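Anyone up for a design puzzle?
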């Protein structure tokens, strides 16, 4: 598993996907989607909050 450096995002601003943030390619017949580090951090932050909520036994 690779280490991802932490990027601070202002929660009050809208998250905008920029050109080049998401790229796709095919390996055999399988679509592979790659995200930039900025998008990865945004997704990981959202997932981390979801895990904490589930661990505390609360519904989302």
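Challenge accepted. My sequence:
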């Amino acid at each position: 598993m690779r280490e991802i450096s932490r990027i601070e995002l202002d929660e009050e601003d809208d998250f905008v996907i920029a050109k080049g943030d998401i790229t796709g390619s095919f390996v055999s017949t399988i679509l592979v989607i790659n995200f930039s580090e900025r998008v990865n951090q945004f997704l990981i932050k959202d997932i981390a909050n979801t895990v904490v909520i589930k661990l505390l036994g609360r519904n989302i």
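A detail worth pointing out: The beta strands are 22-27, 30-35.
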